[in-house]
## 1
Amino acid sequence: MTTTDASLALRTEPTPGVPRLDIDPFGEEFLSDPMPFHERLREEAPVTYLDAYGVYAVARYDEVHRALTDWQGLQSAAGVGLANFRREKPWRPPSVLLEADPPRHDAPRSVLAELLSPRRLRVLEERWRSDARTIVDELLARGRSFDAVTDLAEVFPLRVFPDAIGLGEEGREHLLPYGDFAFNAFGPRNRLVTEGQAAIGPTMAWINEQCRRENLAAGGIGERIWEAADRGDITEEQAPLVVRSLLTAGVDTTVTGIASVLHAMADRPDDWRRVREDRSLLPRVFEEAVRLESPVQTFFRTTTEPVEIAGVLIPADEKVLMFLGAANRDRRRWEDPHAFDLDRDPSGHVGFGMGIHQCVGQHIARLEAVSVLDALLDRVAELESAGPVRRHLNNTLRGFEALPMRLTPA
Ligand code: OW7
């Protein structure tokens, strides 16, 4: 290799017998249409090596599940993106949850798990359902054509989630760009990152400011996090970073999740009618959409020691890229994996991860999605797509720019 660009240079040789693939999972071709690449990654071998970044990759269900659940052999504290924090400075102070291992991970995790538990969320439910009805009524008042992204998937979380945390009214427009940047930052410094970097300064400053105790409204989840610091359950240094986790992980993900479930349910008149008549199917509708679309597509781990996966020995201090979206469509695990099927049991999907880091916000995500869908099902008899899907490219999220739709009022 004659290149002088270190980012293109091959860093290491994989374990003998591991196939080397010339696939860039953060390239525009891949991000625009990942399924054919997922197929190659899954079918080539249980563990492959991506020369473009010098990382190991797993894309089958069993191996992704294995990597997610072995937190001792595959750590998170060295970063869950491409950057190895043992060698590279993180772009922001690391998350005390996502980018931490036991024992440091555990106190922030249990504080947030309690505050976001189904029992604690019950106080939000009535308000959220009424807000969902209002938003759907506003949508219907404007006619039959709408964009499921900008008119619904972005509107509902941005109306209810910042209030639940206790954020002030000002500056909320920073939330989506911040999340977009943070999820891009798990990937390489490609165009998506460098273009985002230009405007991220004021956004970062606003985010960090919102995490301070004096800026969080009484009664919100943010204040409850600071109360956990008062009790000594977490430290005063951890408290603002736990608030920051909510702001990073809680907005773009739920917007993408709601857009995904609307995308999955559009043009499925029989399923729509069935769910209208039996709302007990709603949690499954959401779960199956998360399986099929996998809003969070990838995360990395870093080996702490030589780790065996599917008979392959991966050396210590290597990055392993886990393709959650590919595992969620692995024919070895799922029958007819590419079909949206309300008669399947989607539990066990890895769209929220698995193991000790499994999405701590999944109950709040589910409550948001179910609230908005339930309100829509009350007032809409049919939901059709009305134009091509436009994807929003991101190094980690499989998002949407536009989802043109047409509804028939009930
Ligand atoms: C955090 C779905 C991943 C995340 C994502 C990004 C940031 C954080 C968590 O969960 O800051 O803790």
## 2
Amino acid sequence: MKIDILTLFPGMFVSPFTESIIKRAVEKGLVDINAINIREYAEDRHQQVDDYPYGGGAGMVLKPDVVIRALENTKSADAYTVYLSPQGKKLTQEIVRDLSRHSHLVLLCGHYEGIDDRILSLVDEEISIGDYILTGGELPAMVLIDAVARLLPGVLGDDASAGEESFTNQLLEYPQYTRPAIYRQKEVPAILLSGHHEKIRRWRLQQSLLKTLLKRPELLLERDFTAEEKKILAQMLFEREREDEKN
Ligand code: SAM
């Protein structure tokens, strides 16, 4: 996958992608990430990229001519263009998965008061990373790239590890443990040490359902349960009722 980022601050992208998993993905040629300075597309003497907002008000707005030139020069025939914007659709794992299927992403980062609205006609989607305002689209672009890149084939050591994670299936991931088996009198659940793969799988599914129910119950409203999940939920409710009766 090729990812081009249009930004006024390309230097911000150096460190996040020269460490750890994304660094290795870049080195292996699984993802090609380029930060392009929007200022290169300014044609006037002062390389002006922003201007005062029509109608008054605080701050500066990125100019349509400069940004559209940058976009038109960067987009390929199969490019999918995203403007990182607090007004966009909120980023979810489902959107991340959809984005990971494109071969070329062009990410536009706004700054100051944002971009001239006419630029939006060249954008396929506006994406927000949450209901708060950041100074620029650079950190949201980094978040999006990190989430997308780790889904690309070959990026994670074990491809299955992306398949079972939180939100993949509208469920939070089951609890994870590592050595030592007992730490400060707290024991790892015995089933995980049993080596019984089927029982472990079922326990993990049960824990996923429970965690989601306790922490993010709204996720469960949006999903269809399998027959096995319904059975596990019914069992959990039954056990809960028995506990209540005892107390
Ligand atoms: N005036 C804009 C508004 O009220 O909608 C906010 C502009 S913000 C200060 C500057 C830039 O940061 C935006 O153009 C956008 O690219 C980026 N940005 C800020 N918050 C964001 C968020 N939550 N998600 C994605 N991008 C964001």
